[in-house]
Amino acid sequence: MILERRLATDAVAALLRTATGTPCGLGTVPLTDGRPADPPYTVLHALPLTLSGAPFSDLNEDASSIYQVDCVARQHQQAEWLADKVRSGVLSRRPDGAWRHPLPLAGWNCYARALDLDAGPDNDAAAGIVSYPLRFRLGWTPAAPAAPAAPATLEQAVMQARLSYLCDQNPPRPEPRPGPAG
């Protein structure tokens, strides 16, 4: 299974919107009601994807994606506040060890998240904008196949057990092969 980059990027953008409560643009300023959003907001950039293990054709290998999140604000403190929200949203865990904000992606589990870069705020006095870039590395592994559903009723469980027993007692027989002609 190959990691579908667009779906992973959409999952990360949704996480950022949920964790920060602010708009998130994909590579550009986000739109709100069809117009560019006012700060604070985040801009998500997908950086190079790497695969580990066997060659690219092996469909059971892990993938690592890197995302840069630009936290955009009007003031230095606001940029730091937003960067704190982003870091916490991506990296924090619940007491049971699960990620506080999951990254749901069909067929994949995000098993590792790391902060690769925390560049700090960069003031652009002329524009009245403060940008604070963060870079995260996400580790993905193919999800284990779902276990078969358990029977819903006792009657279904009994029927399943009988069928399994019958199949074990009566294995399929090979079809007879025709003998040599003539």
Provide a descriptive summary of the structure in words:
The chain is an alpha+beta fold. The mean pLDDT is 85. The chain has a single domain, classed as 2-Layer Sandwich (STM4215-like), CATH 3.30.2000. The N and C termini lie far apart (51 Å). Helix content is 26%, strand content 31%. The strands form two sheets. Strands 1, 4, 5, 6, 7 and 8 form a six-stranded mixed beta sheet that branches. A two-stranded antiparallel sheet has the order 2-3.
Give a short summary of the structure.
This protein is of the alpha+beta class and 182 residues long. The model has no long low-confidence stretch (mean pLDDT 85).
Q: Per CATH, which architecture?
A: 2-Layer Sandwich
- Global outline: elongated
Overall structural domain count: 1
pLDDT averaged residue by residue? 85
Q: How much helical structure, as a percent, in the residues?
A: 25-40%
Order of helices and strands: HEEEEEHEEEH
Largest sheet: 6 strands, mixed
> Low-confidence parts lasting 5 or more residues at pLDDT below 50?
none
Which labels suit this protein?
single chain; elongated; two-stranded antiparallel sheet; 182 residues; 3 helices; alpha+beta
Protein topology:
Layout: H1 5-20, E1 24-26, E2 31-32, E3 35-36, E4 41-51, E5 63-73, H2 76-91, E6 108-118, E7 122-124, E8 129-142, H3 154-169
Helix pairs in contact: 1-2
